[in-house]
Automatic annotation (TrEMBL):
Aminoacyl-transfer RNA synthetases class-II family profile domain mapped to chain residues: 193-504
Lineage of source species: Bacteria, Bacillati, Actinomycetota, Actinomycetes, Micrococcales
GO cellular component assignments: cytosol
GO BP annotations listed: lysyl-tRNA aminoacylation
Binding site for Mg(2+) 1: D421, E428
Gene: lysS
Full protein name: Lysine--tRNA ligase
Main location: cytoplasm
Enzymatic class: ligase
Length: 507
């Protein structure tokens, strides 16, 4: 079946074109209303005698030979994405939600002159149409319905974009519903995300984790160094914060005896938006009693590799641009300080003075971080010298103590904490810890954070007395991790963050 020149919308439609098409389609809607005789009224039927789905028919009759008839009658519905009308025979491609298509053949011999003319007069690209008839293969070998009965289930009042012209990224993001109609990759990404979430839950279940939910509205933000969104509760006459991380509540659950917990939910951070950051994003956090950051790294690797297999059938994932990226095997674990020293050609340790780091950063062209500390300089220098050369998935281990206020000090290296960041595709995908469980030390860390906040650091944590009270009832040793679901999709699909989020925030 070939497409006639006038069967698709032009690549670029003017506002006047759209206005004219809408007027014509509205007139067709009025005709549908006038023709209805049932008590329900309106333009469209409430229900339809659907017997099959388009994907099911395609699977069932995959081996049908060209010109073969089945003698089986099926009723299906789909969106018209192609239409070609001739004198005695009309063709249309009906598309289901997964992108599967079937051809509808409306012939004079099968439906009669009046019905054929109504099809020509009323059916437009974008309409949802029900057809019933025999399942056949056309002379060209295309799976088809030889229509004996049909109805418009819903009329599109606005025209579809050209199905053969790529939408711009901005159009895809702002009008995701159109993106899902016209682009296979958009639908595949949604299904990949669902497969990833199902795989994560399955892996956690295999390790006896419990999925829980924690508040998104909080009286005090915490669990991460980030700037929160602030709102007001009329009921409580109180200032509230949108959650920046679920960590402090998940740890309360562990104190309560839920030894292995995880949550997949939304976080909100009032910060910049770019190719790897979104103000609203999906986050996975998990905490496991009686393990450490090494055990939680093993679990994280398993979670990601299982998710890759769920989407791609292999740990070798194929990105949207065709690149094959290997997520298999055991991933490297490197020291932040050792890798920085090797990359920059000078020894940098947890004891390197702040002034020396400041001078070296200036010499290297690294900007001074806001509210500079030893740890912030080390992390900025590491990103400058090391991050760009990481290609394979890599756990970067052992971070400065002053940038990780909720993490346990390293058991053998003074001045660092047992924290790792996992880098995949050149960006941070996940972070993990041996969690700090001593409420006395935690209070001291919170006090230091409060001092930073008093000096104007909007990302610094506040003292959380309720969390400290929970810790004082005895928190078991544990490992914890956090991972962005959107970024996990980026690692598996090779897409940018706005493509992995179904409806991203845009101005």
């Amino acid at each position: 079946m070939t497409e006639s020149p006038d069967s698709a919308a032009p690549a670029e439609m003017t506002d006047e074109d759209v206005f004219e098409q809408k007027a014509v389609r509205l007139a067709k809607r009025e005709r549908l209303i006038a023709e209805r005789t049932d008590a329900a009224g309106g333009a469209y039927p409430v229900s339809l005698p659907i017997t099959d789905t388009i994907p099911a028919l395609r699977e069932r009759y995959a081996g049908l030979e060209a010109g073969e008839e089945t003698g089986v009658t099926a009723g299906v519905a789909g969106r018209v994405v192609f239409s070609r009308n001739t004198g005695k025979l009309c063709f249309a491609s009906l598309q289901s939600g997964d992108g599967s298509r079937i051809q509808a053949m409306v012939s004079l011999a099968a439906v009669g002159e009046e019905s054929l003319q109504r099809w020509k007069d009323l059916v437009d690209l974008g309409d949802h149409v029900f057809v019933s008839g025999e399942v056949i293969s056309s002379r060209r070998g295309e799976l088809s319905i030889m229509v004996s009965d049909w109805a418009i289930a819903s009329k599109a009042l606005l025209p579809l974009p050209n199905m053969y012209t790529e939408l711009s990224e901005e159009s895809r993001v702002r009008s995701r519903f159109l993106d899902l109609i016209v682009r296979d990759q958009a639908r595949a990404t949604v299904r990949a995300r669902a497969a990833v979430n199902a795989s994560l839950r399955r892996t956690f279940s295999e390790h006896d984790f419990i999925e829980v939910e924690t508040p998104m509205l909080q009286v005090q933000h915490g669990g991460a160094s980030a700037r929160p969104f602030v709102t007001h509760s009329n009921a409580f006459d109180a200032e509230l914060y949108l959650r920046i991380a679920p960590e402090l509540y998940l740890k309360r659950a562990v104190v309560g005896g839920l030894d292995r917990v995880f949550e997949i939910n939304r976080n909100f951070r009032n910060e910049g938006a770019d190719s790897t950051h979104s103000p609203e994003f999906a986050m996975l956090e998990a905490y496991q009693s009686y393990t450490d950051y090494n055990g939680i790294a093993d679990l994280t690797q398993e979670l990601i590799q299982n998710a890759a297999i769920a989407v791609s059938g292999s740990t070798d994932v194929v990105w949207a641009d065709g690149t094959v990226y290997d997520l298999g095997g055991d991933w490297d674990r490197i020291s932040m300080y050792d890798s920085l020293s090797a990359a920059c050609g000078r020894t940098i340790t947890p004891q390197t003075p702040l002034e020396e780091l400041r001078a070296f950063a200036a010499e290297s062209g690294v900007d001074e971080p806001p509210h500079a500390t030893h740890g912030k300089y080390v992390e900025e220098l590491w990103e400058h010298f090391v991050k760009r050369d990481l290609t394979r998935p890599t756990f970067v281990m052992d971070f400065p103590i002053d940038t990780s206020p909720l993490v346990r000090e390293h058991r053998s290296i003074p001045g660092v904490v047992e924290k790792w960041d996992l880098y995949v595709r050149g960006f941070e995908l996940a972070t993990g810890y041996s969690e700090l469980i001593d409420p006395v030390i935690q209070r001291e860390r919170f006090v230091e954070q409060a001092k930073l906040a008093a000096r104007g650091d909007v990302e610094a944590m506040r003292i959380d007395e309720e969390f400290l009270r929970a810790m004082e009832h005895g928190m078991p040793p544990m490992g914890g991790m956090g991972m962005g679901i959107d970024r996990l999709l980026m690692a598996i699909t090779g897409l940018g963050i706005r493509e992995t989020i179904l409806f991203p925030l845009v101005k």
